[in-house]
Amino acid sequence: MTDVMKYWTMSAAGRDNLELAEGPIPTPAPGQILVRVAAVALNFRDHLAIDDGLTMIFPEPEPFVPGSDMAGVVAAIGAGVDRFTPGDRVISTCLPDWIDGPGPGNARLGGPEALGSGHYPGVLAEYALLNQNWAVRAPDGLNDAEASTLPMAGLTAWNALIENGHLRAGQTVVVQGTGGVALFGLQIAAAHGAEVIVISGDDAKLADAKALGAAHGINRTTSDWVEAVYSLTDDQGADHILETIGGHHLARSIEAAAVGGRISLIGILNGYEISGGIAHLARKKLTIDGIQVGHRRALENLVRAVDRIGISPVIASRYPLADLPSALDHLDRGAFGKVVVTVA
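-> structure tokens emitted (344 positions)
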């Protein structure tokens, strides 16, 4: 182990403020683990945080490291660490200290912040220093790039469909888009015996989604996707909808949902103000579930499921650590699956 590491840092919002810096490798304090990072998966949240400063606090006087989702190997441990030993493969929990239950937070602020928000350190670095409670063991069956995609995208879909949604075989699941959360939702739902309908504006991506297990694909640019869902389900509608767009688009998901259906509100692509018909909401007896990723116990459940079911995360492209700007550009263009930054 050398004494110096590279890491991305910023002291103000805006991609132009990103800097690839060098500094000393930290030493873990009591209760901490030092992880040699192998891969970092990017999320839409990273775009919002880096470009717009979403939820970020810029501590003074030191800049901070962005990024929340990583896979790596424990290089050293601090005193009192009892969950890991050097050499263990781990992945981060993107929402620190949320172990189980409803989690930390309050009525004014909501739930916890993620790693790499300024509230907590990030992982776009050759080494990351984490509290031992902010990590879980990586799945045996995935490589580092694949494992890095689980903490936010994978867990969000798992939480929506399994932990909260109690998905059953034979139910109908509508997945919006073909990004990381959507494709995890597709694979998790199909593995549990659900009939999956994918909505996209790209026929090639719809074909790829069918190859992953989707029963149907609907091109939202050439047809009314809600009417198409009605047709495919004999007017029954969808039992589960992964609402990854948000904003006024929620109204369309309310239309498409079955009686007693569940809509998992995940995305904010269409903004932070939601809309939808109260009559449909009441008459259909719908559940709208706000999803903020998930807790550590659920991530541990997902890791076990990935190894047993054999889910393979879809990676659109890999970029070296020094080429983070290109990885962010790819994220902006939209990807079929996840964009990953490889470190080691």
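The chain is about 30% helix and 25% strand.
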